[in-house]
Amino acid sequence: MSRISGGQIDRSQTLRFSFDGVSYTGHPGDTLASALLANNVRLMGRSFKYHRPRGAISAGSEEPNAIVELRTGARQEPNTRATVTELFDGLSAQSQNRWPSLKFDAMAINDRLSPFFAAGFYYKTFMWPAAFWEKIYEPIIRRAAGLGRLSKQDDPDAYDKGFLHCDLLIIGAGPAGLSAALTAGRAGARVILADEDFRMGGRLNAETLEVGGTSGADWAAQSVLELASLPNVRLLPRTTVIGAFDHGIYSAVERVSDHLAQPLPGKPRQILWRIYTKRTILAAGAIERPIAFENNDRPGIMLAGALRAYANRWGVAVGEQVAVFTNNDDGLRTVNDLQAKGLNVTLIDARKGDEVIDSAGRLGLKSITIRRANGKTETIHVSALGVSGGWNPNLNIASNHRGRPVWDDTIAAFLPAPESIAGLTCAGAAAGAFSTHAALTMGVAHAIAALADLGVTATADTPSAEDAPLNLTPLWYVHSGKGRAWVDPQNDVTVKDVKLAKQEGFVSVEHLKRYTTLGMATDQGKTGNVLGLAVMAELTGKTIPQTGTTIYRPPYTPVAMGALAGRARGADFKPTRQTPSHKWAEEQGAVFVEVGYWLRTQWLPRNGEPTWRQSVDREVLQTRKSAGICDVTTLGKIDIQGTDAGAFLDRVYANNFASLAVGKVRYGLMLREDGMVMDDGTTARMGQNEYVMTTTTANAVPVFRHLEYCRQVLWPDLDVQLISTTEAWAQYSVAGPNARKLLQKLVDQDISDAAFPYMACGAVTVQGSRARLFRISFSGELAYEIAVPTRYGDAMIRALVEAGREFDAVVYGTEALGVMRVEKGHVAGNELNGQSSALNMGLGKMVSRKKDAIGMVLSQREGMTAPNGYRLVGVKPVNPAESLTAGAHFLVKGATATADNDGGWLTSVVYSPHLGHSIGLGYLKSGDNRRGERLRSVNLLAKTDIEVEIVSPHFFDPEGERLRG
Amino acid sequence: MIINHPLLGPRDSQEFIYLGDAALIHRPDGMAEGALERFVDYTYLRDNPAGSHRELWYHEQGDRSWLVVTRDTTTHEITAVEMARDVARAEGRSK
Amino acid sequence: MANALKPLTPLGHDAPQSDTIGAITITENPNTALASLAARLGREAEVASLAAAAGIPLPGPGQSEAAATYGAIWLGPQQWMVEAAFATHEDISAILKPIFGEAASITEQTDAWVRFDVTSTTLPALFERLCSFDLHKAGAGAATRTVIDHLGCYVIRRTDTRVTILGPRSSAHSLHHALTTAAKALS
Amino acid sequence: MRYSGLRVIAEALTGHKGWKPAWRDPAPQASYDYIIVGGGGHGLATAYYLAKEFKQARIAVLEKGWIGGGNVGRNTTIVRSNYLLDGNEPFYEFSMKLWEGLEQDFNYNAMVSQRGIINLFHTDAQRDAATRRGNAMIMHGADAELLNKEQVRSLYPFLNFENARFPIKGALMQRRGGTVRHDAVAWGYARGADQRGVDIIQNCEVTGMRIENGRMLGVETSRGFIGAKKVGVAVAGSSSKVMAHAGMRLPMESHVLQAFVSEGLKPLIDGVITYGAGHFYVSQSDKGGLVFGGDIDGYNSYAQRGNMPVVEDVAEGGMSLMPMIGRARLLRMWGGIMDMSMDGSPIIDKTDTEGLYFNGGWCYGGFKATPASGWAFAHLLATDQPHKTATAYRFDRFAKGLMIDEKGQGAQPNLH
C-alpha cells in the first residue's frame, strides 16, 4: 500500500471505483490518478503512435498520458484526464487505444517498427496505386488512429449557459489569485475567482511551505472561507476559464455535476458561463517541463512537482525508492519533502553535471541509468523518478489574442507579453514570479492597480512567505546514444523527429509543429512545446526566441461540445412559432410543416384520405368551387406611419406607390440595391399617413431591418415610424366564389363588391369586435383577408369554419396554397431565390425608371437585361399522365444533357386538380418568346426525361375575372 | 465583442446585426448623370482597411438603432460608437 | 363593446397559466393593453407635453415607468410602449390617437406579445441563466430588450422581486419552456 | 529526390540520414520573369503549374511569413465540386479532377480521400434546390445523387432523425467529394515547384509595387526591390492590402472564419456531412479528430481569431444534428481570414496595370479550388488568356451585372 501520512483527503470515507474492470478504493479529495497510484497502479494508458505504456506524469490538466474512457454507456467520455478527474463512489474507467488489453497491446508492434514511422513518413508513401488509398491504406490508418471511443449514443445530460458580470475576474486560486481576490474583495469590488481545481489553493495544496506562519494549504482554506463570506465575491471552483475574447468577455465552463455519478434531477452537467469583466488577473501558475532523455516516458517517470504533489496533497508515494533529476532548486523541494515522508531519494542534479541517460521497465519504471559528471555510469533501481527541467509560466490565456510571449533568460522560459490583452495582467508564477512571496505580493499589487483603474481604492495586506530563487541552469535534453527521447509523449514526438524535421527544412516552428504533430495532442503541448522549440534552437544554432514562440488558442483545456451548445438541441434547437389557428388545427389532426421557425398547417386530412394528395386536391377544388379558409398570419406585417410614409414606400418599392389612395391595397415589388428582387407583398393604405406592409413569411425580419436602414441611414429626415405587427393580428384568407357570402355572415359592415371592391381595405367589426379587412387574393379567387387581434384568432377560425359549414367550405394548408398560386403564376420562395430580377420574373414593367427607388439603377445593367436571359414560364407535360419534377432542367429535343445545352430549370411543380395534370413554373432562357415550344424536362438524378410544353405562367383564369367577381 | 451603445451603454454584440462599411451612407442619386457607374462603385467596391474601420451595425435585438461603429479590424478595438442617423445627417443626408 | 369572440391566452388556455417552481413563480399575464407611441419627426416636444398632460410617462433609454393609468417602456429613440389595463383599454390605440393627433404614430401592440410576470427573491440568480441583462445592477424601473434562448424579449424590472418579460406571442410556449427549465435548474 | 515506400524503408534502415530538405531556401535574385506574391496553396500551385505545365522559368514565390501559413493551413480540408452556377461548376469540377491525380503528379501523399460529401435538406424547397443543383453538376460532368431519408440513415444512423426541430428529408450526395491533408498540399506544391527551379522565398513581405506609366516593373519587399515582368498576386485574406499598393479597391471584405477540431476519437464519421438547418459541417480526420466549422463571424477582421457567439452557434448545430457528440471535446479552434467577395465568387483576372494579375476573393471556397486556381492563374499569367473554366471570374462582372451569386444574397459579403 503506497498511501502515506498526510494529505487533503478524507480518510474517514472510502470510495469504491474500478479501472479496466478491477475494483479499487480511494477517498474524497482523491483524483482518479492519485487513487490509482495509491493502489500501486502506475500503468494508465498507451501512447498514440507507438502504443508505449504510459502513466501519469503530472498532477494537473496538462496531463498528456493518463487519459481514459470515463463512465460507461451513453455517458462514456473518451480522453478524460485521470489527473483532474475527481473521484466519486462507483466511478468506472477504462484504458483506451489498446487491444486487447492495456498490459498486452498488440498495437505495440508499432514501437518495434518505429524506424519506419518517423515524422511525416506518410507523406512519402501510400501513393501507388492511387485507388488503394481509400480502399486499403486509409481504412487501416483510420482504424489504428484515434484515441478514445465515443458511445455513439445521444448525450443524456443537460447543459446550461449563463452570464456573469464583474469588476475583476481572477483566473486561478493559488497564492497570487487568492491574495488578489482578498485585496479586491475586501475593497468591495465585484470579484469572480475561478479555478479549474475542485479545491482552491493551487500549488499551496501541494507544498509544505508556510504562509503567514501557518501551512500554505491552511492559509488557502482560511482565505477561501473569508472570500465565501463576502457578498461581492463569487467563487467558481471546478470552473475552467477556456478563453479570452474581445472587450473583456471570457468564457468559462463550470463542471457542476462531473464529480457525481450523474447530475441531480433538473441540474445541468456543466454550465458555460459568459463572463463580462472590466479587469482580469491571470494567476494560472506555471507548468513544469521535463528533460528529455532516452526512454523518458515510462510509467513512474513524472514531473518532480507532481511527484511531490501526490505525496503532500494526496498522501501517495509512487514508490519507496525514488530519484529526482533536476536542473533547478525546485527539484530539491521534492527531494526534501519525500525524504521527510520517509522515502529513499536519490538526487541527480544536472547542474553538477549528473544526468539520467536511460531507464528500464516494460510496463513501469524499474531502474534508471545515471551518468555522473565524471563520466561514470551507474544503474539504480527506482520505481519513481521526478524530473524537473524548470517551469513554464502558464500564459495560455494571455496569448489568446496572439500577443507574442517574450523570453526570459533567468527562468529560461517565455513570459506573457505585456498588454497582450486589454484589461488583463498576469500575476504570480504565470508572470514568472515563482516564489510564494512574489506571488502573494504580485497578486495584491495587481488587484490594487486594477481597482485603481476603476476608481476603487484597495489596501495591501500581504502575509509573509518564502522567497527562494529557482537557480536554474537550462538543460533540455540529454545527449546520449541512439535511443528515443520523448518531447511530446502523447503524439510520440521524439528528439529524433525534431532533428528529421530540421534536416528536411521544416524549421519554422509552425512547420515543425505541423510536420511532426508536436503539441497537437490533447494537452496542446503544455509540457512539450517549449522543449521542442529548445531542441530546434540548438539544432539550428539560434536562440529560442529567434527560433519562435508558441501561442495558444482557446480553449485552455478541451471542452465538451454539449457545454458549448447548452439547451439548444433536439426539439429545442430553435424556438417554435405557432399560428393563432394552431390549437384548432391540432384538434383537427392537421399535418404541420416548418416554415422558418413557424409551424404551419400543411394540409388537413379527412377520414378516408389515405394520401396527402387527396387532401390537397380536395382543399383546392373545394376552395375554387365554393370557399376555403387559410391561416396567413405568418406573413410579415409592418406598420408604417408618418407624413412621409408614402414617399418612403415609393423609394423602397420599385413600382409606384405615391398614387395609392386611402382604403386601397397595392402589390409591391421590393428590390435589393443590386437590382435583384428582395421581396414582394401587398401594402394597404389604412389612413392618410398610415400604411400596413405585408412581406413574405421568410423575409419579414430582413425587410423590417432594411426599412429601418432606409429611414435611419439613407433618408434620416423622412418622417416615417415603423413597428412590426406580425404577431398582433391573426389573419385569415377566405377565398372562393362563396367567400363574400361566408364572410358577410360574420362582418357587421356591407362588404358587397360595390361597398368593398377588389383591392379595398379598411377597419370593420366581426360580431362587434375589431377587425381589419383586405380584399386581396393569392389564390386567384374572389378572396379577402380578415384580421382580428391575435387572442381572438382561435375563436375566429372556429367562427369562420362554422359560418362556412353551409357552403361546405374547407380549411386549406400551405400545399393547397402553393397549388393555387402556381395555377395563377404567382412567384414565391422558389422563384424569389435572390438570383432573379423583376425581368426574370416577368415583372420587368413594374420597375419604374421615373423615380430613384432602391435597385432601379443596377437592375438596368446589360447582363441583367439581356434578351436571352431567364424568363418565368409555365410548363406542362405533353402527356398529362407524366408528372414534372421541380429542379429538373430544360433541354431541347435531341440535345445531350450537357451544360452548353442547359436551357433553365423548373422552379416549382404542383399537381393541378383543376387541370387534372402536373404543372410547373420555371426559368427558361428567352422564355417569353418560347410559348408553345416543346422541350424536354430532364432530371438526371432520377433519370427521368419527359416532353413538356412551354405555356403562360397563368394556368388559371388569366384575365382574373374571378377575383374581381 | 461589446458595443458601447450611445443610449444604452455596453451591449453584447450578439444583439446586433452587421452590415458593413459606413460609406454605404452615401447612396448616389439614381436620377443623376452617370448614376450607373457611381452605383457600381458604391455597391461593390470597399476600402476594406486593415486598421480603423467605420461600419454599420443594427441593434436588432435591442432598440433597433443603426449605429456607426469605429473599430480596428486588426485588434477589434472599438474607439467610437455613434447613432447612424446623426452621422448621416452630419454627412449631408436628409430626405 | 361586447365581444362575441372568446379570447385565448398566448399559452392557449382560457385562463392564464401560473407555475411555481421552488421560490420562483412564473405567471402568464394577458391583462395589459399595449400600444407603441412614436413621436413624428420634429414634434418630439409636443408629444412630451401631450403625454404629460394625459398622465403618460415617457421614460428615458433603458427605463420603464408606471403612473396611475398608464405605464410606459422605452423602445427606441422617441418610441415607447404604452401600457394600460386591458379591461379598460382594450382598444388602446383608439384611446391614444385622439390624445396625440398627428403629433405621434400609434400602433396597437397588445397581442403581439406574451407577458410573463416572474416573481422571486432570487431574480438575479435566475436571470444569470437566461440573458446578459445584469439584474444585480439593474434596479426597479430598468427595462431593456435582449435575447432569451434566441428570442428577442423585453425584460422589465418592476420591483426587486418582480420582473415582467414581454416575448413574441407566437413563441409563448418556447419562452415558457425556457423560463421554467431555468427555474428548475435552480430549485 | 523521389518519395516512395521503398525509399522510406531504405531510409528507416539507415537512420534517415538521406532525406534532403523538401525545398531550398534561396536568396532572392535581382529580377524574375514571374513573381507570385503569396506562398499559400494558390500561389505555390500557380508557380508549380507555371513551371511544369506552361514550361516557364525564372519564377519566384514571395511569402511574408512561412509557406502554407495562410488559409491552406487553417481550413476544414474539404474538397468538392457541388456548385450550382455555370460560372463556378466547370472550374470546381476541373479542380476535383486535378485533386484526383495530384499525389502522383507531384509525388507527395496529400491524403486525397474521396469518402463522399452529403448536403442534408430539411424542406421541400431545399430538396427542389438540391435537385436543380444535382442536375447542373451532372451536366458539367460531375457526379451527384439524391438520397432519401432512409439512404441517409443507412449511411449515418447516429444523426438526429427523431425529435429533431428540422427533420432530415434527404441529402444531395457527391461521392467524389472528400477531404485532403491541407498542409501537405502546400508542401507538395512547394517541393514540386522547387524541384522545377522555382525560388520559394520565405520571410519576404511585399511592401510596395513599382509601376511606371501603367506598367509593372517589380515589387518592393522587406528584402529589397525585386524586378519582374509579370506579378501575380494570390494572397487571400490580404488581397485588399496588397492590391492597394497598385492603387486598387477590390469588390471584397476580409472576414474571419473559425474552424474547429475535437480530441482524437476512434472512427465515427466516414465522409463529410453538411447540415441544412444550421451552420455546421463536419468530417473526421485520419488522425481521429472531428474537423468542423460553420458560419463566419460576420464582421470585417484581419485578426485571425473569432468570438464565442459563432462557436456556440456551431456547437448548437452540431448537437442538434448529432447529439452523440455532446461528450466529445472541442480541442482547438482557429481563425482564418477570408476574402469575402461581393457575390461569393472569386476573381482570376488581369488588372488595368500591365503585368499585374490578381487571384482572390475565394470566400470559403479557396482550399478545394487550390489546384484549378493555380492552373488557371498560371494559364492567365503565361498566355494572357483566361483558362476556359475560369472565364467568368472577371473584375468587370459587377459593372456588367454578371454576378455569380450561388447563395443569392446580393452585394453583402458576410452573407455569402
TrEMBL record, chain A:
<dbReference type="InterPro" id="IPR028896">
    <property type="entry name" value="GcvT/YgfZ/DmdA"/>
</dbReference>
<keyword id="KW-0560">Oxidoreductase</keyword>
<dbReference type="Pfam" id="PF13510">
    <property type="entry name" value="Fer2_4"/>
</dbReference>
<dbReference type="Pfam" id="PF01571">
    <property type="entry name" value="GCV_T"/>
</dbReference>
<feature type="domain" description="Aminomethyltransferase C-terminal">
    <location>
        <begin position="871"/>
        <end position="957"/>
    </location>
</feature>
<feature type="domain" description="GCVT N-terminal">
    <location>
        <begin position="582"/>
        <end position="851"/>
    </location>
</feature>
<dbReference type="InterPro" id="IPR042204">
    <property type="entry name" value="2Fe-2S-bd_N"/>
</dbReference>
<feature type="domain" description="SoxA A3">
    <location>
        <begin position="482"/>
        <end position="567"/>
    </location>
</feature>
<dbReference type="InterPro" id="IPR006222">
    <property type="entry name" value="GCVT_N"/>
</dbReference>
<dbReference type="GO" id="GO:0046653">
    <property type="term" value="P:tetrahydrofolate metabolic process"/>
</dbReference>
<dbReference type="InterPro" id="IPR013977">
    <property type="entry name" value="GcvT_C"/>
</dbReference>
<dbReference type="InterPro" id="IPR006277">
    <property type="entry name" value="Sarcosine_oxidase_asu"/>
</dbReference>
Automatic annotation (TrEMBL), chain B:
<dbReference type="GO" id="GO:0046653">
    <property type="term" value="P:tetrahydrofolate metabolic process"/>
</dbReference>
<dbReference type="InterPro" id="IPR038561">
    <property type="entry name" value="SoxD_sf"/>
</dbReference>
<protein>
    <submittedName>
        <fullName>Sarcosine oxidase subunit delta</fullName>
    </submittedName>
</protein>
<dbReference type="InterPro" id="IPR006279">
    <property type="entry name" value="SoxD"/>
</dbReference>
<dbReference type="GO" id="GO:0008115">
    <property type="term" value="F:sarcosine oxidase activity"/>
</dbReference>
<dbReference type="Pfam" id="PF04267">
    <property type="entry name" value="SoxD"/>
</dbReference>
UniProtKB/TrEMBL annotation, chain C:
<dbReference type="InterPro" id="IPR027266">
    <property type="entry name" value="TrmE/GcvT-like"/>
</dbReference>
<protein>
    <recommendedName>
        <fullName>Sarcosine oxidase subunit gamma</fullName>
    </recommendedName>
</protein>
From TrEMBL, chain D:
<dbReference type="GO" id="GO:0046653">
    <property type="term" value="P:tetrahydrofolate metabolic process"/>
</dbReference>
<feature type="domain" description="FAD dependent oxidoreductase">
    <location>
        <begin position="33"/>
        <end position="380"/>
    </location>
</feature>
<protein>
    <submittedName>
        <fullName>Sarcosine oxidase subunit beta</fullName>
    </submittedName>
</protein>
<dbReference type="GO" id="GO:0008115">
    <property type="term" value="F:sarcosine oxidase activity"/>
</dbReference>
<keyword id="KW-0547">Nucleotide-binding</keyword>
<dbReference type="InterPro" id="IPR006278">
    <property type="entry name" value="SoxB"/>
</dbReference>
<dbReference type="GO" id="GO:0000166">
    <property type="term" value="F:nucleotide binding"/>
</dbReference>
<dbReference type="Pfam" id="PF01266">
    <property type="entry name" value="DAO"/>
</dbReference>
<dbReference type="GO" id="GO:0005737">
    <property type="term" value="C:cytoplasm"/>
</dbReference>
<keyword id="KW-0560">Oxidoreductase</keyword>
<dbReference type="InterPro" id="IPR036188">
    <property type="entry name" value="FAD/NAD-bd_sf"/>
</dbReference>
<keyword id="KW-0963">Cytoplasm</keyword>
